[in-house]
Amino acid sequence: MRIVVAITGATGAVYGVAVLEALKSLGIETHLILSPWAVKTIELETDYTAAQVAELATVSFQPEDLTAGPASGSFSHQGMIIAPCSMKTLASIANGYADNLISRAADVTIKEKRPLVLLARETPLNAIHLENMLKLSRLGVVVMPPIPSFYQRPATIGDLIRQTAGRALELLGIENDIFSRWNGPK
């Protein structure tokens, strides 16, 4: 199995890190694209460097490299996740403006009818954001804002992050046990 992972500059780089860690632990091949602002956000919000995050992936690409495999429909993969997904990236994807490898890889994922999951990160949302999300949802893209759940009684921020990452991976068809599931009241 091969998954394309992108991290943009929206707050929440920890979601992308958690996705990469989970995929690595499951032995799944990952192809990573970090936007320039993702590099900065990783350094501001986490204890990781961009280089350490890139080491979690099987392969990583520069965002301006439109010759990279994920830019082509003939590059076989089982889905793509953008965690977090900035509104700039979401707008680019929604409007077919594939000016970098992240938006091009997402565009290809849509045209090839492969699963695409966007952990859309912004608050509050304006009408433009919502219209872009609706446009993508109508194309089959899963828009999953990383909203925490509390039914599992998280003890740490890491519990919340893993719950979102694990659910997002399941939307790509990847079974995992990195989060607690709801089994009804006890």
UniProtKB/TrEMBL annotation:
Q: Which residues bind FMN?
A: G9, A10, T11, S35, S86, M87, K88, T89, R121
The entry's keywords = Flavoprotein, FMN, Lyase, Prenyltransferase, Transferase
Q: Which SUPFAM superfamilies match?
A: Homo-oligomeric flavin-containing Cys decarboxylases, HFCD
* InterPro entries linked: Flavin_trans-like (IPR036551), Flavoprotein (IPR003382), UbiX-like (IPR004507)
- The segment(s) forming the Flavoprotein domain are 1-163
Where does the chain bind dimethylallyl phosphate? Y151, R167
Its UniProt entry gives the catalysed reaction(s) as:
dimethylallyl phosphate + FMNH2 = prenylated FMNH2 + phosphate
State any single GO MF term: carboxy-lyase activity
So what EC number does this one have?
Answer: 2.5.1.129
- Superkingdom of this entry's organism? Bacteria
Q: Which family does it belong to?
A: Belongs to the UbiX/PAD1 family.
Checking NCBIfam families in the record gives: PRK06029.1, ubiX_pad
The job of this chain, per UniProt, is described as: Flavin prenyltransferase that catalyzes the synthesis of the prenylated FMN cofactor (prenyl-FMN) for 4-hydroxy-3-polyprenylbenzoic acid decarboxylase UbiD. The prenyltransferase is metal-independent and links a dimethylallyl moiety from dimethylallyl monophosphate (DMAP) to the flavin N5 and C6 atoms of FMN.
**What is the protein name stated in its UniProt record?**
Flavin prenyltransferase UbiX
Specify the species: Desulfocucumis palustris
What high-level taxonomic lineage is stated for the organism?
A: Bacteria, Bacillati, Bacillota, Clostridia, Eubacteriales
